[in-house]
Amino acid sequence: MALSPAHPGTILIVEDNPDVRNLVRNVLHDDGCRVVAATNRAEALTALTSLRFDLILTAAVDSTAADVDHWEPLDTLRRAAVGTPTIIFTALPPATFSGYATRGFAGLLGKPCDTDLLLTTVRGVLAETTTGSTRG
User: Fold this and answer.
1) Any idea where the domains of the chain sit in the sequence?
2) pTM of the predicted model, to two decimals?
3) Domain 10-62+69-129: top CATH class
4) Residue 95 burial by CB count (10 A; 0-12/13-18/19+): exposed, middle or buried?
5) What would the pLDDT profile of 80-119 be if each residue is shown by its tens digit?
């Protein structure tokens, strides 16, 4: 079931892998969403200065190196997008981001991600947005 045309949702996707970015963009677009894609955090921050988004789907730094701070880039983006629900999209084990909700993130999706799960998650967060009960 597609989102209501009256509330299609404008989504910012932040993903460096072009295949994943294009797949997610196409799935969300086909579901009625307006989609803007950024390949990195800098592009995403620029987009946030000129457009209003209903949702952000952002890739995490998918590195297993011990000295990598996985939260810093995510927190920076979430703070810049004041009030915009943000879903973390990652290939890392879910335990890496176990505190996502307490940090103000709206959801966590693993990669690879089934397109039905992607749509269900995005629709759920957008529905919360229209009822005014989102975090972020």
Assistant:
1) 10-62+69-129
2) 0.84
3) alpha beta
4) exposed
5) 888 899 999 988 888 888 888 888 889 999 998 899 999 9
